[in-house]
Specification:
Blueprint lengths: L4 H17 L3 H18 L3 E2 L8 E2 L1 H12 L3 H14 L20 H20 L6 H32 L5 H8 L4 H18 L14
Antiparallel strand pairs: 1-2
Length: about 210
Amino acid sequence: MEISIVDNYYKKRFDFFKWNRELSLTNKVIIAFFMACITGICAQIVIPLPWTPVPVTGQTFAVLMAGVVLGRYWGGISQVMYVAVGLAGIPWFAGMTGGYGIIFGATAGYLIGFILAALFLGHFTDKYIKARSFKPMLGLMLLANFAIIYIPGLIGLGAFLYFAKGSMPSIWTLIVMGLLPFVIGDLVKIAGAAGLTKVITPKEPYAHEVDANN
């Protein structure tokens, strides 16, 4: 019996994720670095804002998908690579910037959040089949974006403003500068990433998921 196009697609996406999780260490490092490169490319989609040193960028989408595509640990490792290579001087942070000086900049906290968010999403993607559907992943990505990325991001922004101006900004100032301008764009990226996750991830077990028999 001829396999339908849909069945063939389901098989290929399952084969990809299972293959990806069973790669050798060397190949996992290569794929993680490839995902770091995608993050760097997306970081060049930049819209500067006049009232804040934090620009609108496209890299959050890549960060969210890193956890989904690479799974637990390796999604986060890809973002560690992104940050480490950028700190080493490769200009692939937002606006083609790079160098260790970024750790003293306004966006350092967001970079830490990227690593944590990718680790978080990778964990749930690999551990729970149900997490790969649109609504659960939408909820997870909202949490990853607005808590796991923004909390260290705002803390880092506050530290930057404190050392730059000599006084700690108010919570409202931080929110206006480091959160509110990005909400609409983030919601669009999150919805797109959650929708893409539903399409590309298998709904069968490939990594010893805890809800495989449910």
